[in-house]
Amino acid sequence: MNFDFDDEHYMFQETVRDTLAAEFPIDLLRDGGDPVELDAALWPTLAQIGLFGLMVPEDHGGLGLSPIEFALISEEFGAALVPLTVTDTIVSSLILARFGGAAQVENLEKLALGSLRVACAVYEKDGGYDPAAFATALDDQGRLTGRKLLVAGAARADLLLIVAKDSAGEPALALVEPDRAGISIVRENALDISGDYYRVECADVAVAPGDMIGGGGEAVACLLDMLATAAAQSIAGIGARMLDTTVAYVKEREQFGQPVGAFQAIKHRCADMAVDINTARSGAYYAGWAMAAGEPDERVRAVSMAKAKANRMAVHILREAIQLHGGMGYTWEMALHFHFRRGRFLETLYGSTEFHNERVLAGTLAQLAAER
Amino acid sequence: MDFNYSPEEQAFRSEVRAWLADALPEGWGRTVFEPEDEEERAQFRISWERKLFEGGWSGISWPQKYGGRGATLIEQGIFAEECARAQAPEGINVIGRNLAATTLMHHGTEEQRERYLPKILAAEEIWCQCFSEPNAGSDLASSRCRAEADGDDFVINGQKIWTSYAQYSHLGILLARTDQDAPKHKGLSFFVVDMDSPGISVRPLTQITGEQEFNETFFEDVRIPKANLVGDLNDGWRIAMTTLSYERGAEDALARQIRFKQELDLLIENLQDARQGGQKSIDDPAIRQRLAQSIVDLELMRMNCLREFSKAIKGEKPGPESSLMKLYWSHVAQEMFDMSIEVLGPEGLLMQGDSDAVARGRFPLSCMQSRAFTIYSGTSEIQRNIISERVLGLPKEGKRA
Ligand SMILES: Cc1cc2nc3c(=O)[nH]c(=O)nc-3n(C[C@H](O)[C@H](O)[C@H](O)COP(=O)(O)OP(=O)(O)OC[C@H]3O[C@@H](n4cnc5c(N)ncnc54)[C@H](O)[C@@H]3O)c2cc1C
Q1: Which CATH class, in words, describes the domain spanning A7-116?
Q2: N or C end of chain A: smaller count of CB under 10 Å?
Q3: pLDDT of the residue at B255
Q4: Phi/psi zone of residue A254: left (φ > 0), alpha (ψ -120 to 50 degrees), beta?
Q5: pLDDT at A181 over 80
Q6: Which CATH fold topology does B127-235 show?
């Protein structure tokens, strides 16, 4: 039993943090720049430090690390607003390594080098969060039809990883090139403006058996759990960054002849933020471990605990961060809104608090029944 | 990072489990419970602690030379989990083990450790904490109880309050003023006081639950030998901070978490059998959401503790960060107990002794008791001051720029 990371992983986190601070200036976004440009500049740097190979097995040219170590990196992605297409690509490598067929596994080498971008096409209008209720499906001729929302970086993706029901009606994953006949990709206008999102429409797209990822429902569950885990971890990073920014501001800003941070009404709220972030971190780290090494039931519970807590924390911290900056907090210039947008986006997209709470309760009841 | 237990840890768990099964009476926790009378219950808990000691399970993470097993914090955690699983009684000498002993290990002399630690382990001597005063609660440093040197003794005069378990205690840790002129933090000293000394009187105070755990404690010309001074004269504040960091820290929190989780499991079990109107309570989506939130909150309380343990094992010392633990658990536990009576509905309001009471009236009692969580060991407001000033580095109150 050990709930800590190795020193070398903390060092890797530092490297990533420094790289992102140097390479990813928020100024460009503030000045109205397109996140696509930012992403274009960032991607090769991330590839250079081996980030895309993080969860690619060593015999495929990766670092062979697991979702445990990814937690620290994912936090930095949140803090620095790294476009979600980066996370999607890294998460896809885990899914391909675990469930991919022989031909699909071939992609891992390129993924590790950062020369392949994968977009995860998951959620749908009216679809909620449970893949059993998604409409996108293959017919018995192997034709895929459906419409996915908020697919990060889809227009630049080399491959689309699509959640769709197979011809037997079970949730499954298809891996297809975006230029296949019947696929159209349109940019969306989304709350998060530090990344680019697309609607991916599939109309009678031909999907061969070899395009399907093995593992069926379990592969889908793993993908969604890993995306939710990454979201919880990134939210932890966003929370920590917002607290640092807020503490620095209230130390400096003076009213009534003293730093506003000396007022209890302010400092006590900062303390509550610190408590909430610390706890959300515990959950997010544990979810990383459960993704790497937990039994499936424990994994589901751990991921949902992490995400439910991260969601509540996100709403709390983001509200306070802006509030404690006063009017400055409401300015475009102060740029807190980028984290607000990203944080609320992650909060809502990868499973609401209610959705994850329900999974936690169902898992707990099953566990209690088994113990009895 | 690894949440699996090593073979040694698993063997340790089996050993604890087997011992507990043997040591507890047949039917314990199902048909046999703790005595309902407070005084009898206190005696019962003391005898349970002695039994633990005889079995070699007291202070297991203490160094061997003080009678411990030198067990790791993780093993200590396993031990607490197994006690909870077996619904073993709580001890009464928590202040002795968790506060007096830990403080003496850091600041006591070798003689003091040899004198006091073994008897804490054996539950031969029960301890209380004489810190708070009527006019010095949150502002503990303004304590006025005085200790004046006189020959080989100090003579104590003053009053302490909220002294939990003073009526059962043989010894106390005492914070008293030894320099009237120094700034308030610099004139306090830390003592061990024999609670049977002439001049000490203890008057129980009735709590909101009707129970009498805490007391007023009066000191009138109480003589304590100079050898009972812990650390240096006038260095008592610093030493008391060590005491408080243990009181607020992860070891304390983990033991509590396990108890809270048991209560939450009991609540869930009762809701599975209960109905409200036409529907099973456990099928009510609003109730499910509230239960889930408490499950998450309590599981993460455990995770917070385990993260702290891992840091401590790496060698990090307990500091103001322990306030993060305490502020968190006290609030989520209070919320859980607040929720418990609401989701049980009308019958949730029946207390012990009523035949319709749910779980022998456990929940309304716990709900009342949980009011204390955010007050003792430093109120939430004080924890927030500590976190904001000493962890986050925000300026002190009233500090003009
Ligand atoms: C069940 C129980 C058991 C206890 N056991 C013990 C024991 O064994 N030994 C012992 O020594 N003590 C014990 N205590 C005492 C406990 O530590 C004190 O009650 C606590 O420190 C608060 O002090 P007070 O009661 O004087 O409240 P006060 O300090 O008078 O506080 C009143 C209110 O003012 C707030 N407040 C005070 N100062 C500030 C500030 N600077 N900023 C903002 N708000 C502030 C407080 O948070 C509180 O809400 C126990 C208390 C309880 C409830």
Answers
A1: mainly alpha
A2: C
A3: 87
A4: beta
A5: yes
A6: Butyryl-CoA Dehydrogenase, subunit A; domain 2 (2.40.110)
- Helix (H) or strand (E) run with residue A173 in it: strand A171-176
Taking the C-alpha atoms of residue B399 and residue A261, their distance in angstroms, rounded to an integer, is 10
- What is the pTM for the complete model shown? 0.96
Strand B153-161 vs strand B215-225: parallel, antiparallel, or unpaired? antiparallel
Work out the pLDDT band at B73, boundaries 50, 70, 90. confident
State in words which class domain A217-371 has: mainly alpha
pLDDT confidence tier of residue A372, bands split at 50, 70 and 90? confident
Whether the predicted pLDDT of B400 surpasses 60: no
pLDDT, residue B252, reads 85
Nearest to A270 among B304, B324, B388 (CB): B388
Atom in ligand 1 nearest the alpha carbon of residue B164: 8
b/e map B217-231, b = 16+ CB within 10 Å: bbbeebbbeeebbbb
C-beta atoms of B296 and A3 within 8 A: no
| Among chain A residues, CA nearest to B289 | A357
Task: Kindly report, residue by residue over A219-237, the tens digit of the pLDDT.
Answer: 999 999 999 999 999 999 9
Contact A258/B at CB under 8 A: yes
pLDDT at B398: 67
**Residue ranges per structural domain of chain A:** 7-116, 119-214, 217-371
CA distances from A75 to A236, A238, A309 (A): 6, 7, 15
Q: Are B175 and B99 in contact (CB under 8 A)?
A: no
- Alpha-carbon dihedral of residues B257, B258, B264, B269, nearest 10 degrees? 170
- With CA atoms as reference, report the closest residue to A16 among A339, A237, A307: A237
Look over chain B and give the mean of its residue pLDDT values, rounded to a whole number. Answer: 94
Q: Does B268 touch chain A if contact means CB atoms closer than 8 Å?
A: yes
**Domain B7-92 of CATH type 1.10.540.10:** yes
Query: If pLDDT is split at 50, 70 and 90, which confidence band does A14 have?
Result: very high
Q: For atom 48 of ligand 1, which residue has the closest CA?
A: B379
Does the beta carbon of B208 lie under 8 angstroms from any beta carbon of chain A?
no
Give the tens place of pLDDT for each residue, B95-153: 999 999 999 999 999 999 999 999 999 999 999 999 999 999 999 999 999 999 999 99
Query: Which residues, numbered 294 to 333 in chain A, qualify as contacts with chain B under a Cβ-Cβ cut-off of 8 Å?
Result: 294, 305, 308-309
A1, pLDDT greater than 70? yes
Q: Which residues line ligand 1 (CB under 6 A)?
A: A 264; B 128-129, 131-132, 137-138, 162-164, 214, 372, 375-376, 378-379, 381-382, 385
Residue extent(s) of CATH 1.20.140.10 domains in chain B: 248-391
Task: Evaluate if residue B318 carries a pLDDT over 90.
Answer: no
- Please state which architecture CATH assigns to domain A119-214: Beta Barrel (2.40)
Calculate how far, in angstroms, residue A212's C-alpha sits from the geometric centre of ligand 1. 63
| pLDDT mean over A32-39 | 91
Cβ distance of A262 and B311 shorter than 8 Å: no
- Find, among B248, B315, B258, the residue nearest to A4 by Cα: B315
B156 touches chain A (CB under 8 A): no
Q: Is B299 designated active site?
A: no
Q: Does B398 touch chain A (CB under 8 A)?
A: yes
Q: Indicate the pairing of strand A183-187 with strand B229-230.
A: unpaired
DSSP state of B98: I
Could you tell me the fold of the domain covering B248-391?
Butyryl-CoA Dehydrogenase, subunit A; domain 3 (1.20.140)
Report d(CA B101, CA B125) in Å as an integer: 12
pLDDT tens by residue, B4-52: 899 999 999 999 999 999 999 888 887 888 888 888 988 899 899 999 9
